[in-house]
Every structure is written in C-alpha cells, then in structure tokens.
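User: I'm curious what two different proteins look like when written out as structure tokens. Can you demonstrate?

Assistant: Sure. I'll show them one after the other, since each token string lines up with its own sequence. Here's the first protein:
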Amino acid sequence: MTTDPTTTATATEATDAAPAATLAVDPRLLVREAGFSGYVEEFKRRMKSGDLGSVPVVLGLILIAAIFQSLTGNFLNPDNLTNILKWIAGPGLIAVGIVFVLLLGEIDLSLGSVAGVSAAIASVLSVRSGVNEWLAVLIAIGAAVGMGALHGFFFAKIGVPSFVVTLAGLLTWSGLQMYVLGDKGTVNLINDGVIANLDTYFLGDGDVFYAWALAVLGTALFAAGQLLDHRRRSAAGLPARPMSEIWLRTGVVAVVSLVTAYVLNQNQGLPLPLVIFLAVVVIGDFVLRRTTYGRQVFAVGGGVEAARRAGVNVAWVRISVYMISAGMAALGGLFIASQQGSGDKLLGSGNVLMNSIAAVVIGGTSLFGGRGKTWSALLGILVIQSIITGLDLVHVNQSIQYMITGAVLLGAVVLDSVSRRTQKSAGRG
C-alpha cells in the first residue's frame, strides 16, 4: 500500500495547525508585550480604529485647567478644586442614571423634573410635616423610583416612544413639584439636618486621614481587581493583560488618587458628596460589567430582537433601567437642594438635565446605545463643572455659558458619530 506524500503533508499541517489555533492569542495583547513600543503601536491602532476611550476627556480637562489658570491665576487653588469636586455630585448622580438609559439607546427627558419633585417631597415632609428626615429621604427616592417604573411601563409594555413618555413626565412632575411646594414655592432646609449636610459635611471634620485612606484603599482595590481578573483569565486559557500593564495602570490610579487627596487636604479634607458619588459610580460599574443584569442591559442596547431571542426579558430590563435612572435623579436632586439650601420650584429646571446628558456623552457613552460606562459620568461632569466654574471665575454671562456648553455637547456627539463610523469601517463597529 502506498501513501500519497501530498496527503501526508496536508494531514501533518492540519495537525500542527490545530494546537496553533488553540493557543492563538489576541494580537492586541501581543503588541502590549513588546514593551513601550508595543503600547505606542496599540495606541495608534486604537486611534485609527476610532476607539478613542478617555483620551479626549483627559486632554480636555488638562486644556481647560491650563486656560482658566492662565486667565484667573486661582483656578487650581485647593479651595476651588474642592468646590468642583463637591458640586459634581448632584448632576453627576443624575448622569449615572442617564448612562443606564443611553446604553439602551433611549433617552429620559424627565430626570430634571424628577430631581426637583423628589427634593420638594423630602423638604416638605421633613420641614412642614415634621417627618423624620431619613424617612422623608427614603419616601422621596421611593416616589421617584415609582415615577421611573411608570415611564418604563408605558415605554416597554404599551409601546409609547421613550421621548414622548419622558417628555410627558417632565411636564407632569414639574407640575407636581409646584403643587407640593405650594404658594410660597420654596422650603428652606433644616439647619444642620440630614439633607443640608449632604453638600457641606467633610469626613472627620477636616481630618486629613480620610482623604489619604480613601486614596490608598481605592488604589489597593483597583490593583486587586486587576490581578484577580488576570488570574481568572489566565486560568481559563484566555488572553490577559501583561503584569507590566497592570502595574502601569495601578501607578496611574495611585498618582491621581494621591494628588487628589493632597489637594483636598489643603482645604477641609474629604467631602461627603465626593465619597457618595464615587461609591455610586463604582457600584454602577460593577453592576454593568460584572453581573448578569449588566450584560442584559448591554445586550438590549446592542439589539432588542437578538436579546429577546437569547432569552432576555427585554420589558423588565427597560422598566428597571428607568427605575434606576429616576432613583439616581432623586438622589442628585437632594444634593442640589443641599447645595442651594432649599427645595424650590426651580430646582431641576434650567440646564441641569442638559448638563447631565452632556456629561455622559462627553465622557464617552454613546447616544446610539450599547457602549458606555458609569465612569463616563464622572469624567464628563468634571469637564462640564470645570467649564462652568472657570467661566464664573472670569465673570462670563450665563447666556454665554449655555452656548459654550451646547457647543461642547455638539462636539462630543460629532466625535461619537465619527468614532462609530471609523470603527465600522475598521470592522470593529
């Protein structure tokens, strides 16, 4: 019996190819392993493919700080930076809720009104009705979650477009806000009360320990999470980040955290609003990236029919997302009320909603659904609040502030659209 050498060679090649296919590694990770030049090559590849990540936001923050520091000379003062980190909590919490909505590719125009009516309910119950403040806060947040469930029901079950549902909610809850507040239209908060302290309280009454402790703890948790992810992926035979990249990322987080702690300690220490905001961002990020529910949100945002065929309860995901966004709006409204010292009929109006939406888009969450993270709310609101604070320092009229914020929002949306188009042309969309 003779053996065909061509057949034998082909079989041998196929046998050799099988292990090679099994051991195939993500080429992006191979590039990273090449050292510094590998990182440069990967950065170029990502930029060419439209995967810009947080680069525009970070560059924008540096540019904003440089411009306003040169114009005012005190933009980077510890007290001004501390105020920025305090003031981002209110609109930032609303922005976290918007991230969940935008991941579905939908919109919620009612969140400003939900924030306003929630603050009104909590203020009236605690001040005029004598209800315990903690209970008043819980009732207000619960009422907001109910409003979100109502929006989600009409959208997911009845089929009314989210734009129409939430626009109706905007009008309805604005009217309810005025009705709850009554003829006076304003309720001053209880001095040194729960709501009043949300914006003014510093952990340890200015003790420098808390800011340093949070910086060290945050860095340690980040490193632990990266190492755990590396271990799990390696054990499963999946491509994992090289250790050099993990330590580089940890080093960057450590520098940012420690510098922030130093700046805060030059003022009054660690503000409560920043702690709560960071906690919400971290929890939201964990929910979206590490839980089944989070994967379902991304699945629905990526394609409703595909998600339904995969067994996802699309209606429940949609309703729950609007409940989350409304709850976050209520919490944000309480911080805004604390900042201004009262609950009034104007709270939540003006540019509150637009700034929150702008923050999320500027931070990198796509308006078209399926792409984003809660960290984009933090990065984006830092940009928005830095611009607002800087313009206030140079005494720019509010009308000009609105136009500049609108231009920044438009620029972010254009960048998002171009990025998506570039990724599609590169086969990554």
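Here's a second, unrelated protein for contrast:
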Amino acid sequence: MTSQHAPDDTAADPRRWWALAVIAIAQLMIVLDATIVNIALPSAQKDLGISDANRQWVITAYLLAFGGLLLLGGRIGDLYGRKRTFMVGLLGFALASALGGFASGGGMLFAARALQGAFGALLAPSALSLLSNTFGDPRERATAFGVFGALAGGGAAIGLITGGLLTEYLSWRWCLFVNVPIALVTAVGASYVLTRDHIDKRHRIPLDLPGAVLGCGGLLAIVYGTSEASTRGWSDWLVLTFLCLGAALLAAFVLVERRTTHALLPLHLIRDRNRGGGALAVGLAIIGMYGLFLFLTYYLQGIKGYSPVMAGVSFLPMTVAIILSATGIASRLMTRVPSRNLVVPGLLLAATGMILLTQLKVDSSYAALVLPAELLLGAGMGLVFMPTMSLATLGVAPDETGAASAIINSAQQVGGSIGTALLNTIAASATATWLATAGRDPGNPAIQAQGAVHGYAVATVVAAGILLLAAVIAYLMIDHRPAPGESTGEGAEATARAVV
C-alpha cells in the first residue's frame, strides 16, 4: 500500500481554472434547482392535475433524497474517486431532469425529483472536494472559494429569476429540461479538465453500510419531519415521530462510527471547532436566508402584485451583492485576516437586513425598504459562505474531503428544510392570531393582506434572531487564522491508499 501525499503547490495543474469553471457550473445547477421549480409549481400542478395535498412532494421529494443521501454521496466520492462520482452525478442529474420534464402525471414528476436529489447528493460533495483538492495555493484557493461561495449563496435567487422567465415565456417543463444541456456539456468538460483520482480496487476500504443506513436514515427522517411541519404544524404526531426517529438514528450513527475502522463520517472531522462552527453558522444562516426568499416571494407576488418574472428579478440585487462580497471582499481578505473576522460581521450585516424587513407593511416601497434589506443580506452572506466553504475541507486528508464536504452540504440542506418549515409555521400562526383579534373582518381582502404581512414580519424577527445566534456561535467556535503556505492537505495524515 502506498500513501497519498498532500497536493504539491509547486506543480499546480495548468487546467485548474477550467476545472473551477466546470465545478462552478455544476454547483450553480444544484443550488438553483432547489428554487427554480418553486415558481413553476402552480403551472405544473394545474397541468398534471396534482392535488393541493400532494403538490408539496414536488419539493419534498428532492429535499428528502438530496438531504438524506449526502453523507453516503460524500463517502462514495472518497472511496471510488471524486471525478468519477462527479460525472455520474452530472449524467444522472441530466437523466432525472429529462424524466421530470416529460412527466405525464404527478407520480412520475415526484419520482424524477427524487432521482434529481439522489444524483445531486453524489454531485455536491464531489464538487466541493474536487475544488479543495485542485487549489492548494492560499491566494488561488481564496479566489476559487470566493466564486464557489458566491454561487452557493446567490444560486437560489438566480433559480427564482430563471424559473420565472422559463415558466412565463416557455413552459414549466423547461425548468427541468434546462438542466439537461447544462449537465451534459459540464460532464464533457469535466472529462477533459478534472484530474483522474480513481482508487485501485485492491486498496479500497469497505463502505460503511451500517453507518450509511443509520446516518442517511437519520437525515432523511429529520428532513421529512421538518418538511411536513410546514403543513401539519410542529405538534403533529407524524412530525414529532420523524424528528424523534431522526435524532435516535443519528445518535446510533455516532455510536457506530466511534467503533468502526472505516467510518462513513470520521468523527474527528466534526470535532474540529472551525469545521463544526462553520457548519453550524451556515446551517443557521440558511434558515434565515430561506425565510427571506419565502416571505418576499409571497409578499411581492401576493401583496404587491408582481409577476413571477418581476418577483424573480427583484432578488437580483441580493445576488449581485453576494457575488461582489464573496469575490471582491472575502476572497481578498481570507488569506490576511482570521476567518471569524469575516463570518461574524457577515452574519451581523445579514441580521441587520433582516431587522429592516420587520418593518414591512402592505404599502412598503421596494426601493426604500426591500432593496436595502436585500443588499445588506447579500453583502453579509457573501462574507459568510466563502470562508465557511473553505474551512469545510481545510487541513483534511485527501481521502476524507468527500466526507468533510458532505458535512457543510448537510448543514445547508437541513437548515433550508428547517427554515422553510419553521418560519412558515410561525408566519401562519401569527397571521391567524392577528386575524382572530376582535373587530377585524377576516373576509375583507385588505384585512387579509395586512394579516399576511404581519405574519411575515413576525417570522422575520425570528429569522433575525437566528442570524444573531449564528454570529455568536461563529465568534465562539471559529478561531482559524491564515498561515503562510496553508493548503488543503498540508499537515493532514492521509489514509494509506493507492491512486491509479
């Protein structure tokens, strides 16, 4: 058996910037697909005759498969090669998207979305670990992760814009078909520019099947429970059952991982305070960010009367702010200042933007209130995503980067699921309480609009509080300081294995 050495920064891959382009396109496709279908959902529901009770499965099927299989997908990349896993994920995602676009009924669409999620769970950890292993030079790594972090933060808003345009001018089906050419072209590019890292069969360690069942089952149960909470409420027996089941399975998962010699998720990766603090900060930040998307989409279309396209375009300033913040500020400072000095101010900026939205009224001006809030949130998130993505794989042995990547991806996925369910429940409850107040006519459209906006404002207070909590956690846990010559693999003890 031979050891895999840390990347040699003096022999940088001349194709690394093309590799960044390929990885970035794949990451953008994954992130925007979580929101691109949201705007198309009403049209798809009407066209396929999906009931109101079942329409949530268009979203939930994707979330379940993606969130539940991330740990397994990350480890498969470590064991069988990230390039191979990346390309299988791309081709599978294209196939699943085509099936969804041709769906003739609700069941076929649900199955296609689940397949998308499953192949996305292969693709996402591989993309991050490939990026980490491709860029070792600190300055180049900062630039690469700036681009990656910008797409991770801004992709959801881009999905809303793209979904609105495709739905309004073509068909809801193109929200799925659009992935096919993107994935195929990216797969062709990946075959040429990504470094081959297949593992010799003689030196592969066994896949941790008990860990896979427990870990993926636990994540799946939690994602399903929180997804159902948005319609059933948090006190519903089904929601509580799945949340408790998920917690129990994850507890059993930890016990199994402590005793196995080939863990699905090596526990020392979680115990690292920088990686754990970054994952917690991102998970909590995503809760607040998804709250913004959820309520502003409802507000702009339902209260202000914006078309789907205009509602999507209204998120563009936030996307631009994320990109400029991540690539123009965070990537320049990441090699010069402690990571905490970027993440904490970023979360505080985002919380300030969310606090502005607590003043939302039916007649609020987009330019005077919504736009400044979006810019603050975008600028803050750009400072958060870029360094935390880098911390996710910093100092990790090359044969564990897939598992480390799955940690940050799982934090994002679970955070998004919890955020949507939690804040939607809070908003609905606040609206119902406000409308039930004596003297108010719940049948009056103007009163209904005021009640809905009141619910959004109350939920936004909670979202702002969650962002502030994330800032406190980041301040207490993240203590990484950049060091000369720092790279992904330096200082990590690589597991003995052969790469062919």
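A detail about the second structure: The mean pLDDT is 81.
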